[in-house]
Amino acid sequence: MFDPASLKYDANGLIPAIAQDYGSGEVLMMAWMNAEAVARTLESGRVTYWSRSRQAFWIKGESSGHVQRLIELRLDCDRDCLLVLVDQTGPACHTNRRSCFHTAIRDGQEIILTEPQNPSE
Amino acid sequence: MFDPASLKYDANGLIPAIAQDYGSGEVLMMAWMNAEAVARTLESGRVTYWSRSRQAFWIKGESSGHVQRLIELRLDCDRDCLLVLVDQTGPACHTNRRSCFHTAIRDGQEIILTEPQNPSE
Lengths: 121, 121
What we know:
Two copies of one chain form a homodimer. By secondary structure, the first copy, chain A, is mainly β. Chain A contains one helix and eight strands. Chain A has one helix spanning 35-44; strands spanning 15-21, 27-33, 48-51, 56-59, 68-75, 82-88, 103-106, 109-112. In chain A, the strands form three sheets. A four-stranded mixed beta sheet of chain A has the order 2-1-6-5. A two-stranded antiparallel ribbon of chain A has the order 3-4. The first copy, chain A, has a two-stranded antiparallel ribbon with strand order 7-8. The longest helix of chain A has 10 residues, at 35-44. The mean pLDDT of chain A is 96.
């Protein structure tokens, strides 16, 4: 059986988790999990991070409604990074954009790639 | 002009960088950059990480030939994570698999999704 304790966590007990849209392949965000967040994500099917700023579990979308349903959890060869395939409801980013990675560097300038979604979308 | 110093680095001066295949959308690996690695990546077009184990710059593929040509560098809303769209030659993973994320958790078991590529591929 997979044991979340078998992953490699950093000095703060955290592992980076990359959320990717299962359908489109779009990388939506990166956040952090501790072993308990990994376990809760697998058990509940609701992607659950550890909020470093709030020092609390963060069930993605609990307040915003922009939940991430777990499709599949993957780990990398070093067991120190997670890839979380998700079914994302609405925008993943707190700026109301689908992805947090909405800024590109082009010709040395920062270019905004997407505008915030309409709340009704 | 974009200044790599404007990103948010951790206590070790590093920022996580997610490499994604520009064509397929596959997430290939996650590694770390410092400000100088970000600058070198943008200047050279060759994705360059900071190796925490070797404490040295790591021009991806320099020894293996499995280079990553930079297509576009993106940053997230918190400026503390990078998404690097790449043109990946050969496997990205040191196990000779295309992606480092080749293990999935299914029904509580670790499942290997892909086998190592033939060196001639």
